[in-house]
Amino acid sequence: MSYPQVIKTLNKLLRSKKPEKFTSSWILENSPTAYRFIYKNVRTENNHIDWDKVVSSLNRSLQSKWVPPRYKPKVINFYRNKKEVEVIIKKYQPKLYVFITILNKEDDILRNNIIVSLVRIAQRGNRRAEEKLTFFLKQIIQEWLEKYSRLSRWVGHTDQLDLKIKHCIYWYRFTGSFLGYLYKTLEYSAWALKDYQGFSLDSYIPGTTLTMADTLTKDPQSGRVVRARDIGFYYFH
């Protein structure tokens, strides 16, 4: 049996039996031969069964029925393993430009594969995988913030953005593209954020010869540096 035959078998089984959901145990029960092939031959860079590859190869209408193994236990025992991350990075080293620019559809698919490989290792508790993945994802998100107005409210909310990325990493199961899942999460979450308005202290206040820096003074009561609400109310130093 070859990999294309395994996928063809699973597609046919899922269409004929029409389960509401299916798992690795369902595959073992309904097609032991296909399961054994997957177990022996479809492996990630760190030698785990690559269910993401299997499910993404199925007919698109069937993918949503997949219930993945529980990568996330109730309590994760976090650890740091550099080798688990390096084996993934080394495999894709010549193609890491995909986190800066996408040249074609193949690059888009490859980028998602790299991301999901790191996601699965992070979900097992590897902090290094989480950190490396967060770094890569922030390169992509920075471009999103410049291109898509629906995400503009995230500008200036770095701490909350890091936390949202982390949540997406640990809660992702299989919902198609990880980046699609991340984008939608950021889009929906943006509604709860306040617009961040930045300004330069060297910019002039309209209608005056004063800069923003000129309006800063020390509050005589608290001693804090504050912006004067009424220019003439504070003594400027």
Along the chain, the helix and strand elements come as HHHHHHHHHHEE
Shape: elongated
Regions with little confidence, pLDDT below 50 for 5+ residues: 230-237
Strand order of the largest sheet: 1-2
Structural class of the secondary structure composition?
mainly alpha
| Average predicted local confidence, pLDDT | 83
Mind describing the biggest β-sheet? 2 strands, antiparallel
Helix content: 40-55%
What fraction strand?
under 5%
Number of DSSP helices? 10
Explain what the structure shows.
With 237 residues, the chain is mainly α. 51% of the residues lie in helices and 3% in strands. The chain contains ten helices and two strands; from the N terminus they run ααααααααααββ. It has helices at residues 3-17, 24-30, 32-41, 51-57, 60-63, 82-92, 105-123, 127-147, 158-171, 178-190; strands spanning 216-218, 225-227. It has a two-stranded antiparallel sheet. It is elongated. The relative contact order is 0.08.
Primary descriptors:
237 residues; 3% strand; 51% helix; disordered C terminus; 10 helices; mainly alpha
Summarize the structure.
This protein has 237 residues and is mainly α. Helix content is 51%, strand content 3%. The protein has helices at residues 3-17, 24-30, 32-41, 51-57, 60-63, 82-92, 105-123, 127-147, 158-171, 178-190; strands spanning 216-218, 225-227.
Secondary-structure map:
Blueprint (H helix, E strand, L loop, with lengths): L2 H15 L6 H7 L1 H10 L9 H7 L2 H4 L18 H11 L12 H19 L3 H21 L10 H14 L6 H13 L25 E3 L6 E3 L10
Antiparallel strand pairs: 1-2
